[in-house]
Amino acid sequence: MLYLTLRHYEYVAGVAQHGGLTAAAEALHVSQPALSTALARIEEHLGHALFLRRRGAALILTPQGRDFAARAQTLLEQAALLENPRLPPKSAQPLCFGCFSDLAPFLLAPTLRTLRAALPGHRIDFRADPFDPLISALGKSEIDLAISYDLGLDASFNRTELCRLTPHALVTPDHPVSAQASVTLAELAQFPLTLSHEGLSVQHMLSLFKAQGLMPKIAHRAASLELLRSLAANGEGIGISYSLPPGSLSYDGKPLKATPISDPQAREPIVLISHGQMPKGSPLGVALSALSKELPKYLASR
């Protein structure tokens, strides 16, 4: 026997459409307390939240909620077609994937390829953002899944580690560090450095130095990876980067040497980020499973 009725699906789809209980209750011709109680019972039955509730703010769909609301809307449209076969069908809810901007040139294309193979015919949207906008979009459920470094994320997000990256020191070929097989943070603290302008990235790197009682000399903060590489190639300070594009030239054609940083604690995980457990068989569940399986293999082969 089915627990949820079409009316329950109307409740979820209505709140998803109107963005709040008051407007949805009015459109659905039900009292707001009754609608709130029904939503709570639906979520209890499903075993996961459909909406994020914040005092004084509109309800926000979780990724599971977006998927459920889209399927609920599809079910309602199919029911309506039984009564009126002439009604035009509507397209499925797209899946939105986010990627940290420095990782996007390396990971966005294989991620899209994996998602399209796992979800043929399903619309896949994407965005590449710096840390703060990416985390904000995840918190607002504007993004279903994301790939980033494990920085600035609270405990509400699920993380699946894909790999760990070793940072590299980027120097000119005549720099003393270029002749070394590896370099330590203690050695780097003796030279002027160029770090990313990203707040979370800078905080992370500075915390690594601070943990060893070191005070690095920051010469520049670069707004992009290629600017960081260019500054390093022109002798403006040793660049430190986790992303390592192939090739030994900066954008302006200057030679560049990358020396791995050997401190074990400097290795940083790349994680696949999601909201809670995805229902098996749902588009989000299929996407999470496919990416968790395929991306580690792709990263290991690079």
From TrEMBL:
The organism's superkingdom is given as Bacteria
Question: Keyword annotations for this protein?
Answer: DNA-binding, Transcription, Transcription regulation
UniProt-listed InterPro entries: LysR_HTH_N, LysR_subst-bd, WH-like_DNA-bd_sf, WH_DNA-bd_sf
Indicate the segments forming the HTH lysR-type domain, all copies.
4-62
State the PROSITE patterns in the record: HTH_LYSR (PS50931)
Q: What are the coiled-coil residue ranges?
A: none
Q: Which family does it belong to?
A: Belongs to the LysR transcriptional regulatory family.
What is the protein's given name? LysR family transcriptional regulator
Native organism taxonomy: Bacteria, Pseudomonadati, Pseudomonadota, Alphaproteobacteria, Rhodobacterales
